[in-house]
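Explain this one:

_____
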Amino acid sequence: MVENGLLKTVGGIGLLYYAGERFGDCVIRVVYRTTTVDDNSGIFVRIPAPPADPWQAVHSGYEIQILENFPANYVLSEHQKQFGTSWHTTGAIYSMRPAMAKPQKPVGEWNTMEIELREHSYEPVRGRRPDAGYIGIQNHHEPQTVLFREITVIR
């Protein structure tokens, strides 16, 4: 939903994606703000086809995570038990590469994230990732609320 000129994630699991074109090499600049210490969202990249449902982006694209504090009430996956939660916090390529730092500012402050998509700078263990794809914003679940004031693609 759009509220006061900001894109706001609300409701259950969902995905807002840009259907105008697929993006290849580029930088995606995202300016966002969390509203609680455990807000959960993400930026999906390289989604190969227009997603019919949110899980299509999860299973076929790559998520750059927005989740600064892994909530204590979350049930840890086997991957998280084995490798820790840094694979699922802000800046991580979800389950593929852990966050390299803890860059997120305190709740209520604006954060800027730049995501560089360049050639084959990351690949899954099996198969090649798409050279281009759609981008999308994850709407996780109630009561998670993340506000976005800018999403810019720079070529």
